[in-house]
């Protein structure tokens, strides 16, 4: 946490301030609004993701700009799709091609807005993409993880397409997509797989791994399987858990609503927590990754949204029972960061 307070949070703020200044120059008012609101409302996504740079401070000058830029693309596109003037899956897929290009050094940029009416962002999205490309190109072992980063980004893009199309088509498309992958994840339900694909943590972990010289392709593959699906699934299920009331009001899809009962929701999340803990034991420096898991639980279950939802408060209470001291420590720090850093 000393590294987080001393290095990570200030440098994340500096990066976000740079992107905010650029976003304020966006000519199209709708694109400007969504770019600025994504950074304001989802700042903690960048703060949390950049914690991975604390594990290799020597490369933080690459990892922090990379993580902040990719997460900012993700949050910006999520806003554009959530509040879209379009329901065109081709539009959503073209927008998310920017994330694939971002993790592919040397990829040629295109007009990611070509299928929508709002198009003039003054070069904002291209600059985000090029920043990611420059940073990934400087990671010593990126060749050993690039294929797995690309796979996770592709799955993320698929999810964003299917969850934002017409409401009467969403579930059937998501279930059809799940059938293409379910044989590889027999322990998961369809909504848990979908949730896992919505996480950027696996990408950030692979970036961290690639900052070490000599990482083999076998190591890169192992890390991908250690983080996906359980660590990634826990991340996004917690996000959906606290957003249930907000999503209900907005008519948005929420993967926590697909459990038959509150007790089943708790049981499944408990299972995913335990699987995630067991998975990260296979990593060198597993204590750091165990702290990531405890930090996720503390960060989301201490969110102010929890207080206003009786069902979510009860689920949170059950998930936090027998909390280890590390989780309580992160609970305190999560509240502190919200109060003084945002």
Give an account of the 3D structure.
- With 342 residues, this protein is mainly alpha-helical.
- Helix content is 70%, strand content 0%.
- Helix 10 packs antiparallel against helix 11 (217-227).
- The model has no long low-confidence stretch (mean pLDDT 92).
Keywords:
18 helices; globular; mainly alpha; 342 residues
* Beta-strand fraction estimate: under 5%
Q: So how many helices?
A: 18
Rg computed from alpha carbons, rounded to a whole number of angstroms: 19 Å
Output the structural class. Answer: mainly alpha
Q: What's the overall average pLDDT, rounded?
A: 92
The 3D shape can be described as globular
Task: Please estimate the helix content.
Answer: 55-70%
What is the gist of this entry?
The chain is globular and about 50 Å long. The protein has helices spanning 2-23, 29-41, 43-49, 60-82, 89-102, 124-137, 146-164, 167-179, 190-197, 201-210, 217-227, 230-242, 244-250, 262-280, 286-301, 304-307, 310-319, 325-340. The protein is 70% helix and 0% strand.
Layout of helices and strands:
Blueprint: H1 2-23, H2 29-41, H3 43-49, H4 60-82, H5 89-102, H6 124-137, H7 146-164, H8 167-179, H9 190-197, H10 201-210, H11 217-227, H12 230-242, H13 244-250, H14 262-280, H15 286-301, H16 304-307, H17 310-319, H18 325-340
